[in-house]
Amino acid sequence: MLVNAAGILRMGATDQLSAEDWQQTFAVNVGGAFNLFQQTMAQFRRQRGGAIVTVASDAAHTPRIGMSAYGASKAALKSLALTVGLELAGSGVRCNLVSPGSTDTDMQRTLWVSDDAEQQRIRGFGEQFKLGIPLGKIARPQEIANTILFLASSHASHITLQDIVVDGGSTLGA
Questions:
Q1: What's the rounded Cα separation, in Å, for the pair 167 and 174?
Q2: 152: which of 19, 127, 136, 160 lies 20 to 30 Å off by Cα?
């Protein structure tokens, strides 16, 4: 089993984001997974089975203002993981993604600039054309972990090449 869950977030409007932030975001968010895939694919083929779960983001599905590097890197990660899944499917290896939405993590909290920021995220930002979260709460890390554990388990033995979005409905399945 392999779980790819590394990621960084560099915020900024596309025309104000530094080239260094752009490159670092791609190096960590896509390059790290690429390196792991290169180092492990032969072993997965030899063992004729296994599960790979890659953590992307709902930002790969729905663009967000000020998140061009993050969203683009997670979309690239999604494409990479699905390509690897196609390449390994014939060896019985299942490759899936989990794309969390807003989750109560340190990374998420760095985005909150006011005391009521969590509630603002839940309600949405109409001026930025962002929906709120229909379930009325942000995810707990354990909810994301449970989805990863399910996809890695034998309970998901016939699930591959899927991207499970865990966002409380905020992307409406986009």
A1: 11
A2: 136
- Residues 70, 97, 160, 168: which is the catalytic one? 70
Domain ranges of the chain: 2-166
> What does the alpha-carbon distance between residue 46 and residue 71 come to, in Å, rounded to a whole number?
34
Q: Choose among 170, 164, 140: nearest CA to 152.
A: 164
Q: Which positions ≥6 away from 6 have C-beta within 8 Å?
A: 28, 29, 32, 33
Q: For the segment 75-96, what is each residue's pLDDT rounded down to a tens digit?
A: 999 999 999 999 999 999 999 9
d(CA 2, CA 53): 6
Q: What is the model's pTM?
A: 0.85
CATH number for domain 2-166, candidates 3.40.50.720, 2.40.30.30, 3.40.309.10, 2.60.40.1090: 3.40.50.720
The yes-or-no answer on residue 12 being catalytic is no
